[in-house]
C-alpha cells in the first residue's frame, strides 16, 4: 500500500525521527523512499543595499552555500535511513517547501508523504509546523506526521 514513500526533511531532530519511521515503514513493505529536501529560494530583494553601503552578495557563493547546506541535510538524513536497511534515493529542490513537496508527491504518484511536525514550546507542541500543516491540507495522498 505505501510502497512509494516521499520523505520530506529539513534536517531537524523531528525530521530525523520521521526518517527513522519512513525507513522502518519501507523495510516492512519493501517500499522505496525518495528523500526530499526543499530550500527556500534566495531572495535578493531582502538584501537590497542601502545608499552608500554595498552588501556585496555574490550569487555564486549563495548558490554554493545552498548546495552545501542541502548536501549536509541529505547526508545526515540518509545515515538514519541507511540504518533501517531501506532503499532510497535523494533529491534537492529550490522553492516553497509546502508547494514543492505536494507537487512532487502528486506528479510522481507517491503513496504517502512522511514528514516531521515541530513543537517550539508547551502550547506549540499541540500544533503542527507551518510546512507540515500546509502539506497535510494540500496533499492528494496520505500524510504520516511524526512528532
Automatic annotation (TrEMBL):
It comes from the Bacteria. Residues 1-147 form the UspA domain. Transmembrane segments: none annotated. Belongs to the universal stress protein A family. PANTHER family: STRESS RESPONSE PROTEIN NHAX, UNIVERSAL STRESS PROTEIN UP12. This is Universal stress protein. It comes from Chloracidobacterium validum. The lineage of its organism: Bacteria, Pseudomonadati, Acidobacteriota, Terriglobia, Terriglobales.
Amino acid at each position: 500500500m505505501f510502497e512509494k514513500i516521499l520523505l520530506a526533511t529539513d534536517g531537524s531532530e523531528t525530521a530525523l525521527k520521521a526518517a527513522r519511521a519512513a525507513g522502518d515503514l519501507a523495510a516492512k513493505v519493501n517500499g522505496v523512499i525518495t528523500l526530499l529536501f526543499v530550500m527556500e529560494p534566495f531572495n535578493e530583494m531582502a538584501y537590497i543595499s542601502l545608499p552608500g553601503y554595498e552588501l556585496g552578495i555574490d550569487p555564486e557563493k549563495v548558490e554554493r552555500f545552498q548546495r552545501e547546506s542541502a548536501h549536509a541535510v541529505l547526508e545526515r538524513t540518509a545515515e538514519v535511513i541507511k540504518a533501517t536497511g531501506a532503499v532510497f534515493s535523494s533529491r534537492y529542490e529550490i522553492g516553497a517547501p509546502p508547494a514543492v513537496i505536494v507537487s512532487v508527491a502528486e506528479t510522481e504518484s507517491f503513496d504517502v508523504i512522511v514528514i516531521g511536525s515541530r513543537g517550539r514550546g508547551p502550547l506549540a507542541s499541540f500544533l503542527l509546523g507551518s510546512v507540515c500543516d500546509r502539506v497535510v491540507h494540500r496533499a492528494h495522498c496520505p500524510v504520516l506526521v511524526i512528532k
